[in-house]
Every structure is written in C-alpha cells, then in structure tokens.
Amino acid sequence: MSATRVRLGLRANLAQFSLLVVVNALVGGMVGQEQTVLPLLAEREFHLAGYTVLLTYVLVFGLSKAATNYFAGTWSDRFGRKPVLIAGWLIAIPVPVMLIWADHWGWIVAANLLLGINQGLTWSTTVIMKVDLVGPRQRGLAMGFNEAAGYGAVAITSALAGYLAEQYGLRPTPFLLGAAYVVLALVLSTLAVRETREHARLEASQPQSGSFTGQHTDLTNRQVLVRTTFTDPALSSASQAGLINNLNFGLSWGLFPLLFASAGLAVDQVGILVALYPAVWGIGQLATGALSDRWGRKHLITTGMLVQATALTLIAIVGTFPAWAIATALLGAGTAMVYPTLLAAIGDVAHPGWRARSVGVYRLWRDSGYAAGAVLGGIVADIWDLRAAVWAAAALSLASGISVALRMYETHPRTDRRPIDHIGDTS
C-alpha cells in the first residue's frame, strides 16, 4: 500500500473499519453457538458427573485462546495482520462438524481447543487492525464498536441457539449457525479485508506522537511481556482486571446455565438469561468506549469491576427469572464499562512499534481468565455448590476494582485535541 494513500481516522477508513466490525461479529458468534447448548449437552447426552469435569471445555478453550493471543500479536508484527486473520478462520473449519458428530466428550474438548485458537487469532487481529486504522484519538470508540459487535453476536447467537435447541434438539441444528459463520468470515477475510500494518507505521512516524514521545520503539518480546505484565502500572493493572473480567465470563459460560436450569427454568428461558449478559455488555460498549475517550479510562474500569462484583452477588442470592434477568443485565453493564476501555488503555500506553505485541500479552492474561474461571468455578461448585462459585467470583471482582483504583494511572492523552481524521493525508 502506498504511503500517500494511508490515512488515520475512523472517517478515512470507514469501509474497512465496518468490514472488520462484521468479521468480529462472526468471531463472537462462534462462541455464542456453544454457550447455551454445551452445558446442557454435557449433562443430558454425555452424562458428565461433577462440575470440574464438565468445565474442561472452557478450561481448554481459555488456555488455547490465551496462548494464541500472544502469538497473534507477535505474528501480526512479523507477517502482517491479514494472514493471521485468515489462518484463524481456516482453523475454525472443523469446529462445527466436531460439535455435531462428537460421540465422546473428548471430541467436544478438542473442538474447543481449535475454537480457542480461532478466537485468539481472529479476535486479536481485528482489535489490532481497528486500532491501526483509527489512530490515537478514537481508540475507545473503535474498541467499543469492536467488542459490541463480538459480544452482541455472542448474545444473539446464544439466544438463537437456545431457541433452536428447544425446537429441534441440542444437536445438530444450533451448530449449523457456526458452520455458516465460518464460511462467510473466511470469504470476507480473504477477498475484502486489507492489510493495516502501514497505518501503524504511519502513526509511529508522526512527530510528537502524544503519549508515545520518548518511548523505546524497539523493545524485545521479553521486554514487552514484562512491561505489560508487571512493571508498567497501567498495562499490568489492565492485564489483571482483564483476567478477572474473563474469569467471570468463563464461570458464567460453564455454570450459569446449570444454575438457572436447577431452578426449573426451560431451555429457552436459560438461553435468554445467558444471552442477556453479553447483550447488555455488547450494546453498552457502543457508549462506554466513546465515553472513555472523553472521561478517561481509569474510573470507568474501576467502576465496572465494582458493578460486576455487585451483580455477581445478586446472582448468588436470588433465584427467579426476573431477578436473574436484572442481575445478568447489571453484570453486562459492568463488563461494558471495562472491556473496550482496557483495550483502549493498552493502545494509549504501548508505542505503535510494539503495540500489537502488548495487545497480545494483555489478551494472553485476559483470556487466561476463561481457564481460571473454569478451574475456580468447577472446584468451588464441586466442594460446595454453584452459588458458592458465584460468591467467589464476586469477591475477586471487588478486589480487582480496588487494585485498579489504587495502582493504575490515567492513560488517555486528553490534552491533545488536534483533529486526527486527516493525519497522514498527503493529498
């Protein structure tokens, strides 16, 4: 791509940005096809005993996605964003088939291993590409759209899969959704998506580049890992908050359907409750991402973690459909405050020269939360009960919010009010 044609800003790259929003919706839909159905499939068709055993698929998904996130950032810098995106969709091809035809739980676990790799490569890459396109002023807005599309699709597909399972059975119909998503996403990623690495290079070349001034641009992979995990208070705070956030999501994925079903709710009602959490989460990010560009990142992250703690406490206490609907909606609202804002904070602090790798490290820790949620939720539920597992997640969310409030600094360079839409436009 010629340097004279590269421009930063949402308006200048609206077509490609919108296309990437659609692709990320398909990424989220791959998770949504499982959320309502798999926990019930584990109990009713595979007759699994013990919550820890049941949550093996969430554990494997979380570990494979977390590890792949790290490599997605490194490979995006080395080979480009688009090849990594296409590779992620190629890996997803067998997943719906395995879920439909599995006659042993091991095949379900194997499908989720591949699904985790798919999610790590595709979701990480769409995040990186959107940040590349919009430049520094609109990162929160960009991440709001990205995450809203992904988790909105999780919600819609979860509800639709629950309806299809109630009407036509747990298999195969709900998983045909995933098969359609893979085909469409692979076509779009191959034929329509364009490489965005030159946009990051353009931003890095701009003089006086805001919060990046004076930063080293040639950090090693190890230095990026240490800085994002431990030494930078904002990057490391984002990493731990992201981990706890996805611990909550991983626990909800594996245990919420069982908790709701234990109260006698029908499968379609369980599907609605399971979908309500990511629905509010997804829609809310359209507002919270943009608000973080105006108000800053730290206070939204702190508030969001505390709201999640409150919502989980309610879920552990109540036991009816209306009460759970309120609680899961509140959980979605708290997550919406946190999710795009954490990614925007990483983009604020990390120099474009190593930003993709820092995003990969952050997402490594954030998506380790799936595995942590599976282990914590399974062990606590087996020792005590399902509600005790939710109480444990509430306590961790409270501790995370307090840690962010005490340690994280504000990352958003709000003093720089220059218009960004025409940076790099040499026409």
UniProtKB/TrEMBL annotation:
Q: What subcellular locations does the record give?
A: Cell membrane
Q: Which domain of life, per UniProt?
A: Bacteria
Q: How would you describe this protein's topology in the membrane?
A: Multi-pass membrane protein
The record's section on SUPFAM superfamilies has: MFS general substrate transporter (SSF103473)
- Please give the start and end residues of each transmembrane region: 12-31, 51-72, 84-102, 108-129, 141-163, 175-193, 247-266, 272-292, 299-318, 324-347, 368-384, 390-409
Please report the stretch or stretches of sequence annotated as the Major facilitator superfamily (MFS) profile domain.
Answer: 13-412
Q: Which UniProt keywords apply?
A: Cell membrane, Membrane, Transmembrane, Transmembrane helix, Transport
Keyword Transmembrane recorded: yes
The UniProt entry lists the main location of this chain as: membrane
Name the record gives this protein:
MFS transporter
Q: Which organism is it from?
A: Saccharopolyspora endophytica
